[in-house]
Amino acid sequence: QVQLVESGGGVVRSGRSLRLSCTASGFTFSLYSLHWVRQAPGKGLEWVALISYGGDNKFYAESVKGRFTISRDNSKNTMFLQMNSLRSEDTAVYYCSRSGSPYLLYNWFDSWGQGTLVTVSS
Amino acid sequence: EIVMTQSPATLSVSPGERATLSCRASQSIKNNLAWHQQKPGQAPRLLIYDASTRVTGIPARFSGSGSGTEFNFTISSLQSEDFAVYYCQQYIHWPPVTFGGGTKVEIK
What we know:
The structure holds two protein chains of two kinds. Chain A is 0% helix and 52% strand. Chain A is mainly β. In chain A, the strands form two sheets. In chain A, strands 2, 4, 5, 6, 9, 10 and 11 form a seven-stranded mixed beta sheet that branches. In chain A, strand 5 and strand 6 form a beta hairpin. Chain B is mainly β. Chain B has no helices and eleven strands.
């Protein structure tokens, strides 16, 4: 059974940094591209970043480009999101999600973690 | 960027009735569309991909149709557990992957 578990959320002051983790189990981690998707309070879903199965290709939403860095450690079945220069508008629940087919960069999101809340205070 | 527009924003339906939700893409996405369900306080859950393929284990009362720019998602007979927010997602024109704003299906 596919399982994705996010951690690392919390309350942080504007301008500071935070690192999120997503630990996976139940599938061959190194075969799947992974995403971060966020949801601001009471709002819809916003795609944040993607990392390819091997970690070589990374893509970002314009709203986080230059501030957030996605990475992964396939030996530890874990993906990360380093968030720097945080702003109040980054306040959201951050979900990790898996692409639906192995090797494909973009695909439907077939599994989601439970999310971790990031609150940026001023 | 592909803009996904869902309508209506809120749909009030009685249990046992049929609900039809719409999703429109700003340009053709062929059939590269997924539908996700999200209940309060929970993560989204994939129901449909490739516009009309149900995920294994998803009840047959859920169905999707359409291609190009116009898509529908139908719940044939609403059950109490189906009241939730539903999001469409396109995955052919990237980056970015984009979602619709969601349709909340509420009890009438």
